[in-house]
Structure prediction request, 565 residues.
Amino acid sequence: MGVKLPLIFAERMKSLLGDEFEQFMKSYEQSPHAGLRVNTLKISMEQFDEIAPFDLRPIPWCETGFYVPHGVKPGLHPYYHAGLYYIQEPSAMAPVELLQVEPGDRVLDLCAAPGGKTTQIAAKLQGKGVLVTNDIHAERTKALAKNVELYGVRNAVVLNESPERIANAFPHYFDKVLIDAPCSGEGMFRKDEDMVKSWEHHSVEKCVLMQRDILETAARLLAPGGTIVYSTCTFAPEENEAMIAEFLNVNHDFVVRDIPEEKGFAPGRPEWVRKMMPEKAEETEAVLDQTRGTARLWPHLLEGEGHYVAVLQHRAGQEIETDQPGVVKEGAMEYGQVVDVSRIEAEGNKDHSIAASSIAMTKADRKKERLLRIESRESHDRQAGGGKNSGRQSKKGKDHGGRKSERGQGRGADPASIDPVAIYSQFMKEQLEIELTGETVCYGDRVYQSSVGAARLEGLKVIRPGWFMGTIKNGRFVPSHPLVCALNTSEARRSVNLSSADGEAVRYLKGETLNIEEERVVLKADTFAKGYVLVCVDGYAAGWGKWLDGVLKNEYPAGWRWTSV
Prediction:
């Protein structure tokens, strides 16, 4: 059964597509394609190939992506709960591939919820560099934060901010910026019929205003020689080619990096701007033809939904006028302003925009780009007063309220005498074998490892300032679920493996207490079985347990538990 399309939309597409229109309309009689993307932060492609529980078919534009057969429900498998893959619409995997993220990059995902592209970026960074992920809608950041945690991302900061405020804190800081822009959503009609119902309320005119502001702000966030990938899930040329031409007309230090016409990707359509918006075409004529190098993903030309994508490259030889970091109030980032969303349900795995293919750069281009980034980073870090301040809160120069560092505090200790970092460090030394990076920061009783640090985040609405490690309670450190999600068995002093085949793993994911013989607890040298245990599903971290006398007490969070039959 096909999707009933709005009459106005169908008439416009017929006018634009001409001879292609009939083929385009037939695509709405087909079922949408489902996909999953392997999380290489936790498992290699070779390892996943050995244990994959479904018959999968590769997605051409994403080497870690696969089509899922119709009727298969990958969300009802323990591997999903262990974060081994992300369920994602196939076309939605393309923009991050096009962004060409490399380990060590500084990357911003500006309109990120629910987090599919964020986790894809994180896998490409492999724990190196900086990932800042943001969504302006507070409620949507709950799913974003949970996905960052479930998929074992160690180097991400999660924000709930306007692009303008982020630009004040991170002027020309990022090597790569992804804009999965809010749009009228025409490309999602087949996948989500609710988009058809809401289409009239998401006018093109309103979307254009938001997109224009976001693009202009992204230019302020980008380092010299950096890349912006802009994508929408709409067919409207006002939000696509016309928007890119307008941006290029104002920002002369950017060019479109051409996307090859392969893997089903079709070229941009500048002629549609000339046909539908002659005044806009005349205004941007000098740059409009560049938009032919952008890409459109059509549901009748590939196995995926409809999208548009543009790759905007800053000319490495051009100077970017730098801004001083914004002035923030001293102590603005108190714990009360860090939103806690630890125990929440995911809002689903809908991605709302996409598209494209990878573009090669010469080695000389990459070297030049890298040198410019390094020079820019050093300059901006000096301007920002950057530098490590491990384990300190930025407030009047005091270390955790001016308290002395004391080790070995226990239950009943005077709160004024507790040093959270000392307690945290002692736990890590006793329970884990892991080399931590970044800055240790504390907000109230919560401890994080931050790839950015507290100073630059002051004054911003922060959901997660870094990798959430745990909480100080009654003078003791309680490790968090996000901490264990990002571990592997070699980093834990105790671990136990549960099988996905015999139901034991599902029982754990449902929150049940398990009987586990001591012989099954894998121990590092000089370690007793009693204590916190890394619980794995077929060898991959799923959560904490506490083992004592043959019983594994379940520490899997209630809000994350398996609820399916």
